[in-house]
Amino acid sequence: MPRKQRGRGEGSIFMRKEGLWVAEISLDDGRRKTLYAKTKAEAAEKLRYVQRQIDEGSFVYDDSQTLGQYLRNWLVTKQIEMRPSAFRRVEEHVRLRLVPALGQMRLTKLAPQQIQTVYTESLTQGLAPSTVRGMHFTLRNALETAVEQGTLSRNPAQAVKKPRQMRSEMQVLNAEQARALIEAARGERLEALYLLALHTGMRQGELLGLRWKDVHLDLNSLHITTTVSWDSTGYHFGEPKTKRSRRRIALSPAIVGVLLAHRTRQVEERLKAGAAWQDHGLVFPTLLGTPQSPSNIRTRSMNRILTRAQLPLVRFHDLRHTAATLALSANVNPKIVSEMLGHSSVAFTLDTYSHVLPTMQTDAAAVMDRVLAVRAS
């Protein structure tokens, strides 16, 4: 039977055939506001919220809201919730990609096919799959908020196929090549940077954001509490993105010695710079104390050292892969390696460096032979 007409501010709650709960409320102009929820209790709560807004005179009915308008409002909330570096990426996805392509669409009329078409066209035009995946992650999260608020019955981005994640091929230096790199960097201004990268597997942002206050040479350790990132507006300091990324790393006596010498040279650089020095307390700053640009590290220092050592022009991030691979190959406990790298889990570490597993398993078999005193019959 059809539902009877209700007066202003009254509402009804019912369940659709597919199991989705719907709350409807009558407005004073004859229109009805529809809210969606996964449970009856959730629908009732959303209905009460709108009823309170009507009673207070703060409710605004706007069925013409575009995706662009919604995303801009959504960003205001996300800016408070997200880390600055993460928010900058999300804001760029909204401003540079999503709003130009889909911003004029009505939010409630947005369909999976329209989203899929934008992804396909973006890939065809040469946009990197990782960027399109970032667009998808941003849009899906934004629309999920609309579902939670009852504005949408379902998230159209959930039905869209995102580009397959392509892992960058890692180029790992073997032990001999790593030693050649260290030898070629000897005497260089950033010698300690490369040595620390190969010994600890720290990320580039962690190394370039490392501050002396977090380096405890008397305790042979350092703590990672800060990272630095770069975008079109310049550099930005921030916190590590996960709890496991905030970690303590042990330093060998040899590394401590290199860092002591590096600190002495930096004091001389600071005196030479005089008033031009900008003190951020960084371990690996520029000659003026400011954060190093990753592109400058690569083009003005690392590539030159690799060429001198007659090594392939690997990425700085490959030094992290090299550190992990050499440690695992030397039978360092995978849990220790995972903690050193700041990975989310040991499983992730082993999955990332699965190329090392066959050798580890062979060594483990030989160890078990010795432990059990197995002899060939």
- Whole-Å distance between the termini? 84 Å
Quote the CATH topology of the largest domain.
hpI Integrase, Chain A
SS strand fraction:
5-15%
Total number of β-strand segments? 8
What is the annotated CATH architecture of the largest domain? Orthogonal Bundle
CATH superfamily of the largest domain: Intergrase catalytic core
Helix content: 40-55%
- Uncertain stretches: 1-9
> Which class of secondary structure composition applies to the elements?
mainly alpha
The rounded Rg comes to 28 Å
Element order: H for helix, E for strand: EEEHHHHHHHHEEEEEHHHHHH
* Oligomeric organization of the protein chains: single chain
The largest pleated sheet is described as:
3 strands, antiparallel
Main sheet: strand order: 1-2-3
How would you sum up this structure, described in words?
The strands form three sheets. This protein has a three-stranded antiparallel beta sheet, covered by helices on one side. The protein folds into three domains: 11-56; 74-159, Orthogonal Bundle (DNA polymerase, domain 1); 175-363, hpI Integrase, Chain A (Orthogonal Bundle). With 377 residues, it is mostly helical. It has 14 helices and eight strands. The protein has helices at residues 40-56, 67-81, 84-102, 112-124, 129-148, 175-185, 191-200, 204-208, 253-273, 294-308, 317-329, 334-341, 346-352, 357-372, and strands at residues 11-15, 21-26, 32-37, 215-216, 221-223, 227-231, 234-238, 248-250.
